[in-house]
Structure formats: structure tokens, C-alpha cells
Amino acid sequence: MSGEAQPLLRSEESGQRNYAHDDSEFAAAEQRAHALRIRSIVWAVLGVVFVVGVVFALVAPGHLRDHGWSGQLPRDPDLAAQRLLDSAPVIDGHIDLPEVVRFGWRNNVSDVPLDGKMPTHVDIARLTEGKVGGFFWSVYVSCADSSDEGKDFLNATWRVRDTLEQIDVAKGLIEKYPDTFSYALSSEDVKQSISQGKIASLLGVEGGHQLGNSISVLRQYYALGVRYVTLTHMCHNAFADSAGFLIQIPPLHYGLSPFGFKLIEEMNRIGMLVDLSHTSDMTATQAILHSKAPVIWSHSSARAVHNVARNVPDEVLSLVGTGEGQKDGVVMVNFAPYFIAPEGKANVKTVADHIDHIAKVAGKKHVGIGSDYDGIGSTPEGLEDVSKYPALIAELYRRGWDKFELAGLTGGNVLRVFAGAEKVARDLQTAGTPVVYDIYDKREDLPVKREL
Prior knowledge:
The chain is α/β, with parallel strands linked by helices. The chain has a single domain (91-431), classed as Alpha-Beta Barrel (TIM Barrel), CATH 3.20.20.140. Helix content is 43%, strand content 9%. The chain has 16 helices and nine strands. Strands 1, 2, 3, 4, 5, 6, 7, 8 and 9 form a nine-stranded parallel beta sheet that branches. Residues 1-17 have low confidence and may be disordered. GO terms for molecular function: metal ion binding; metallodipeptidase activity. It comes from Paxillus rubicundulus Ve08.2h10.
């Protein structure tokens, strides 16, 4: 061994120091000490976190909810409503904005300042503030004067023309503001629109009198994008009896006419939602029993809470559900003060009373919101326009509704029913169900059917 190695080696006999051996032991000791210090720091930090967590959970568990860390809604009802509507925005069953354009701007969509302050209940800023994710644009025209129309509804009254103009108005406004609105034709379209941060825009025809006694017109409305037809307005028509307004009017057909049963069959076949708002109790009952698809009330409240003809009685509500002898459906509560409470008494709480009652009778999965904004002259206190939906959600949260029930109310329930009607239509069409070509039997403009 060379002499160069000698100083690095230690000999017991010589008493010389082994530097390599001693230095490696020193380094290992340093590493052990460093690791011990790291472990001590980690355990100290974990201990502090544990203590803080225990204190936080014991002293202020609500802070987790209020900051959205627990998955629960915040304790504060107003904050909870905002949080809920961020993920489950309102889908309103009935807004009469096209009517405002008809009478306020003579249908001139180019002049309508929807991105500014509108004079009634609806504009883009307030829709955004109210956390609206979608609504049915009501393409409504009023009932004809009975003397003009004739007892068999045969005289021309321009109702189909005027309905087409209302459809044109709605589509024109949707197209005018593409960053805000998205035209929707299906339940999936609605979900897609909401996911893109837009307001899903669907069309509904508010009354069978707008069909011109023709099932063919029904099909053409569907082709134009209409997705519900209300069987009646405040007048009887060739298809069905109306409830009237505040007081029930004498029946004509005692429910559906034979032609009305055929109308419902074709609505089911093409996927048009059957809307029972405005209908008489007999019409509603017969329609529920005859329809193969789920039904809706686009803007109706509970008669047991406020006794007017336009509201839905408990015996009809009891037919709504998923049990034996029931039909799936959704009753979308109307905000019109005269349907909600005695004069001067309508407010957020009384609207919530109607929602609670329908939920009690039919179940929370069968109630929704159908405000009738822009179609009513006054509003409940606290629900003055479309920006105020959060106040209603906050009130129901105070009453114990959980986030899943509230999400159903705001839009989930109507989407389920819509999807159900779409499925029935697919099934009927797949089965080869024939198109309904029946003609109103009182028409005089077509030849009498002859046997060939």
C-alpha cells in the first residue's frame, strides 16, 4: 500500500485518527438530527391544524356552510338563495314579453330596448339579477269577442295571424340579443343553454282559440318551435272548456270535446306539452286521464289557498304524481295578486303558501314557477319583477326546503316533465302511431266526407 494512503487510515496500535470513518459518522448524525427536526415541525403543524379544526367545528360550524366548503347552503336565507340559483337558475313557465312588444312597439322588434330599462317587469339586466336560466315566451293573443266569433267558433278573427306575429316577435328578440338568449326546442337544449351562461328561450301558445279549430295548425306551431299549448284561455273553444276568470263560467262541452281528445292525442304524438292553466276542472281531469304524456300548468296557483276559478283545486292536484292512477306533472305557480290573496294581501309569503300547499298535496317534485310577468297589471309585494326570484327562494329556504327540493322548484321539475313528454312522443312515433287528421265537425268550408 502506498504511503499516500497511510495518513487516512487509523491504526489502533498507532493511535492515529481515521478521518474518513469519523467524518461519515458525523454526517450521518447530522442527517438524523435534521430528519428529527423536520418530523417535529410537521407534527407541530398538524397538531395546530387539528386543534384549530376542532375549535372551528365546535365553535363555528356554520362558517363552513357560509363559505361553501361543506357542500351545504349557507345559513343566511338570502345568501343561500343566491348560491342555489347560481347552480339551479329559474326556468319560468310563463312570461308575456311578446305581448308588451305588441302593444308597446307595434311588434317592431328593432325599437325594443330590452338591454335598457323596460317599462314593465322584464329586461335583460333584471333577468340577470334574478338569476333566470330560461323561460317560456308566451305567444298570446286574447280570446275573440263571442259575437264576432259565432257560437261554433267558425268566423275568422285573425287569431292565427296574430299568433304567428307573436312567434315572430319572440324569435326576433332572441335573435337580436344572441349573447343573452338561446333559442331552445328541447329539454337538452335548455340544459345546454344554461351551461353556456345563456337564457334558454322556449315558446308557448296560451290558448286553444289560437289554433283556428285546426290540429294542422298545432303541427305547424310545433314546427315553428312552440313547445306547449294551453288548452283554453278565459274562453271556451272548439276543443275544451275554460275555467273563466275569478268565477267559473257555465260549461259548453263539460270538459273536452271529442275534437279536444283528438287534439291531446296529437300533442302527445308530436311532443307538445299539454298545458292545463285556464282550463275548467272537468277539462283538466279528463286531460290528465287521457294524456299519455306528463302535463303542466304553466301559470296556476292553489284554490285551497285562494278560492278563485283559475286556481287548481285539491281534487285535481291529487291526480298529479307518480303513483297508481296519477300522471306526472308540474304546477308552476302564478304571481298575479288576484290569484294569490285577497286584495292588498299578496306578497312573497302568500306566493310561498301556494307553493307549499301544492307541494303538500302533489309533492315537491310537482311544483314550479310560472310568474305571468308582463302579463299582469300588478305584482305581489317583494316580487315586483324578474329580479326578485331570489326573495321567493329565500322564503322557502326559511321554511325548511333543502337545496334539492329548491333546485326542483326553480327548474328541475319542469325539465323532468318536458323530457317525459319528449320520451312519450319518441315512443309513439317509433310505434307508428298515425298522424291525427281529424277535422272540426262544424266546419262548413270543406266538402262533406263521402264514401268512395
